[in-house]
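Re: that chain you flagged

S.,

Sorry for the slow reply, it's been a week of failed gels. I finally had a moment to sit down with the sequence you sent. For the record, here it is as I used it:
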Amino acid sequence: MTRIAGMAGNRGRNLLNVADRRPGGAELAVVLTNGEDAPVLEAAAERGVPTEVVPLEDGMSRREHERAVNEALADYEFDLVCLDGYMRVLSDTFLDEQPTTLNVHPSLLPSFPGTGAWGDALEAGVSVTGCTVHVVTDATDEDGAVLESEVDAGPIVTQEPIPVYEGDDEETLKERVLYEGEFRAYPRAVKWFAEGAVDVDLAAGEVDVEADRTGEDGLSARRLVSSDRVDALRYGENPHQDAAVYADYTCDEASVVHADQLNEGAKALSYNNYNDADGALNLIKEFDEPAAAVIKHTNPAGCATADTLSEAYEKALSTDPMSAFGGIVALNRECDADTAEQVIDSFKEVVVAPGYTDDALEALREKENLRVLDVGELGDRTDRFTEKPLVGGRLVQERDLQSISVDDLEVVTEREPTEAELESMVFAWQTLKHVKSNGILFAKGTETVGVGMGQVSRVDAVRLAAMKADEHAEGKDAEGAVMASDAFFPFPDGIEAAAEAGVEAVVQPGGSVNDDDVIEAADEHGIAMAFTGQRSFRHD
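Prediction finished late last night. Pasting the structure tokens below so you have them in one place:
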């Protein structure tokens, strides 16, 4: 266990934060201050942490005071010293006697060293400041006089950037640097020391933190993201929520954030428009053939590929034209006039495509508030990770870029799928990746006929997909369909429901302890079934 000697001059909020969080299992062994009335003394005592006061007496030199500090600490065992607003430049009299000493400074060193860092940042007009945890080094001459050029010049352990907002004053910036910067950075540094992950080379003026490096998997020890606000949105998911859209200008992939809006005068995209348009664009990127998709509330209402774009759109729309009302259209080819005429035949919020013919634009602009986005050439999918904010953190994962072919399918039933069913299985699987779990999708050829999304019961998802196919689809039904499931069937009841709907082939991951029972049920109903060997959940 790493034990810390904390030295504070006033409230010691960083030290108390470390004491409460115990990063890496570290704990405060003692808190020392040079002020008898320092509030940190009472707060430390409340936490059961011993305290010491070494006042700076009249006529006491820097080295004399440090020798008194060393003497006060002599009865305590500790492995690390952490300063917090101590406001005393330390010399070799202290530093040579004690273990590694850390300090947190309220700026991104080497910018704005010394006192008054918050005011210095505001005066300089910077848009970003922050804090720095660094190793404390001797900043005095032989007589103990301070060398200003050496203050806050020790090797850096970690930093945390903090934006400077319009209207900030020194007090508001100071508080934000503390709570959003120092309260992250100082415990992080202490944790690394507690875990033995830091190598300090004072002779070279370097600190090496192995734990802060990005591994081969590309998932860094810290998530550092910088993006620029493109625009403030009218509101978020609901009118009572403020929202904005930010851009990552290092992204080379076709993106709705960077798309040109071609219908001048149309209202700007909303939060939900951006979210749905992104989902629609990601879906049609799955296919090389002409493809169209209609998205509603981030779920596909329909998707299809065909020989022409207009045919693909017609098949996608006919899956569930009622749900497609007010939806988002995505196309993976330049939008032509035939397709555009179909798009404007019913109310749509947004259409996304890698370009438009002049005739298509003329047709689309007939709808005053239809947002027409040109994302440019689709190209490769280059963004590797996706993330989801949580209260108190965020989840980061690799994108689900899995892609299957007929050769990847393992047939497990007595009846072999036909070539047409195998082709449909591949299409259904690539589309199903974009359906919220639990997700079930019915397809014929390379078009959807029914989608059951977001159910807590997989059987309910099957029944929903069947209902959509039989009641909402135009010119389609579930009879003879291929069914795709994003995860295995834990029991045969899902297959029973599919058979009742008229499904003749199933593609699913497999891997249930009851796979044998599920396969037996498929055989009893003459259903062909293949396993992909991989799951395709989508929970957000």
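What I noticed first: The longest helix spans residues 170-194.

Talk soon,
D.
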